[in-house]
Design brief:
By secondary structure, this protein is α/β, with parallel strands linked by helices. The protein folds into 2 domains: 19-334, Rossmann fold, CATH 3.40.50; 337-371, no CATH class. The protein has helices at residues 40-65, 79-88, 102-107, 112-119, 148-160, 179-190, 210-213, 238-253, 283-290, 294-305, 310-333, 341-344, 352-362, and strands at 19-20, 94-96, 167-172, 195-201, 204-205, 208-209, 230-234, 259-264. The chain has a 6-stranded parallel β-sheet, with helices on both faces. α1 packs across α2 and α1 (40-65) crosses α11. The longest helix has 26 residues, at 40-65. The radius of gyration is 22 Å and the shape is globular. The structure holds magnesium ion. Magnesium ion binds at residues 172-174, 202, 204-205.
Amino acid sequence: MSETSPSAETTVAAFDVRMTRFVDAAGTVLAPLPAFAQDPEELRRMYRVMVETRAIDRKAVALQRTGQLGTYASCLGQEAIGTATGIAMHADDVLIPAYRDYAAQFLRGVPAESTFLYWAGDERSMHFPEGTPSRHDFPFSVPIGTHIPQAIGVAYAFRLRKQPRVAVAACGDGATSRGDFYEAVSSAKVWNLPVVFLISNNQWAISLPRARQTGAQTLAQKAIAGGIPGEQVDGNDVIATRHVLERALAAARAGEGPRVIEAVTYRLHDHTTADDARRYRAEDELEDAWTRCPIKRLRACMATLGCWSVADEEELEAQAAARAEAVAQAYFAVQPEMPQAIFDSLYATLPTALGAQRAEVMTAPAPQTEH
Ligand SMILES: [Mg+2]
């Protein structure tokens, strides 16, 4: 068809998806930093949280490998997203997390030993402490994506009560291929709810690579079908991730409706300790991903800005290792709960059949082993 021919088709809608990054993988500052990042103390604070989270994560894996913890999902490589989330959210917002959002949970008051208890199968791990923001958060969801529509209920309650609060629903890349995600995105816009959908795109859904999971060019664009703004951020740049989250939270709080943020990152560990990614992932891909490590990136950035030294690093490494060890000791100090506990958080009134099973386990010998 020549340029002058009339066309039966016209463009009725066009979209673009933006990506935000302030600091590149080498730690070079690419654009003027947001105000919070011009304060060296804020940079050090974010760095400290990421390093401590990694130390605790490493300890959890070590405990699992030595038979002292159940299956564990590591957040290695994704520390920036949790850190940015925990700092960006207000205390009375509600976090509806996926697993691997540990840093956000720690910042909101979940004791790290509770996270260890969770992976040891202890029901008490989800009793978050009174007086902390985590108290009204959800425990993280192991089933993929089923928690995302629940964020709609939370955000709808905020709207009904006219409260300036925001629900943050965190999920992985795999969850965005599920109906739950699309249903939530669609309803969030229809009801103009204060909810932020935060996707940690770590490139793998267990053993399924991103490219085989969805043909979408970005995951952020999955927002567009629901009429919601969707954007990408470099999820290994903690400054950028915090910036876009704070912007989305402020918009949602101001009544401007929901947002989808795709934080692009990489899962540097196996899916869980029950997985061995060497069976399906090329070694050079992993090596390449390590060059974009969020901790290394912020450290290089701070060193360039003159607010981090070798002595600072050594001191923090020692503090983080001591904190991880203290978490392990606090976990060991908890007496195992009785086996009937598995029944006690499921129903307000236990069905008869389960009641009989509960009575049966109560006659069993008490647990003899430590964690
Ligand atoms: Mg994933």
